[in-house]
Each structure stands twice: as C-alpha cells, then as structure tokens.
Amino acid sequence: LAGMAVGIAALAAAPDRPALVPSREASVLYRVTNADTAPIEVRVTTAAGGSPMRLDMPDRTYMLVDASARNMAMVVPDEQVVLKLPYQDGPQTHFQLNDRMRFTRRAPGTVASVRCTTWDVVVDNARGTMCISDDGIMLRSLGVDETGRRNLIEAVSEFSSRAAEKLRRQNGKVSQVLTFVHTSPFWKQDKQYSRSIVVPPR
Known about the structure:
Number of strands: 13
Oligomer: single chain
C-alpha cells in the first residue's frame, strides 16, 4: 500500500503537458499566416526525437537543423550554395516545443484529420493556443508574440509518414508511388499548374 501511495503521489506531481518532441518521424505541410504578409506553405520534416529537422520554404530554399549537434545550415539549390549558420533561434522555433513553455490543457481537437489536444501556452511574453498530437507533433499554433503580432500556423496535411508507418506495421510493400505537384491555390497571382506521375519504387 505504501508503494502504491508513492506511485499515485508521483503521478499527481507530474506536470500536465504534452510531449515536447515527436516520438515518431513526421512530414507536415503547414500554412503560415500573419498580419503582415500573405500566407505561405512550409513543409517540416523531422525524425523521432525532434532532430534533425528540415524546413522547406516556398522559394525552394531549405534549412537543416540538428539540435543535438547544435548546428544549422541554409541550402539554396538554385545557386548550389550551402550556408553554415551558428545554432540559434530561427524559423524552426515556430514548429518546436520547449521546456520554457507553460501549458494548460483545454479540449480535444482535430487538425488535418489528425486528433490532437488543445493547450493554452505561455512562453516569455508571448501567449496563445496550440493543438498537439499525442505523439508530440504541433498541428496548430495561434498566438500573439512579444510585439503584439498575431500568427497562425496550421497543418494542411500529415500523410506520407503515416502511410509508411502503416506499411511497416502490416509488412506491406509498395508497387507504385504517385507523385504530384501543384501551385498553391492561395497564390492567386501565380499561373496555376498541376501535374502528376506514377513511378515504381527503386
């Protein structure tokens, strides 16, 4: 009984907060909106444990972040340039959770067909809400930063990594892969383009 009481006390003292790093690999397409600019889409791919992380930007540049090794790099494919950067807060922090955040649980939710829990979040002088999946993936973030600017980050899709996980669990095999590309429908000023191709896996 004494051991059970100690266990219950430990559970009661544990902080009520989400997992701060993903427990699985994931590739999530986010739509990022703030008051000053048009919405953009950013794809964030991360390994289990949250590092390394890759951020693909709309202009075809991408950032590689390895928090465990504390290094960062910006890759500019069109110019065949790789810029090594000092490890610091940057665009990746908008998609990461950290232990400075204080969480208050609110209600269950669903974003991009993935179930998540909504939390009120306070960090430094910023506050907002986040919907975070049970496996530590941030799917929606709505907040006001230190300057008073409102920002919304919301997952549009989180599919490819889940499909791969299901195949592995089922000992399945892939016979074909459909790859498609299209212009964002939110970029009204751009000529709309769409094309797809089916290829066998190598």
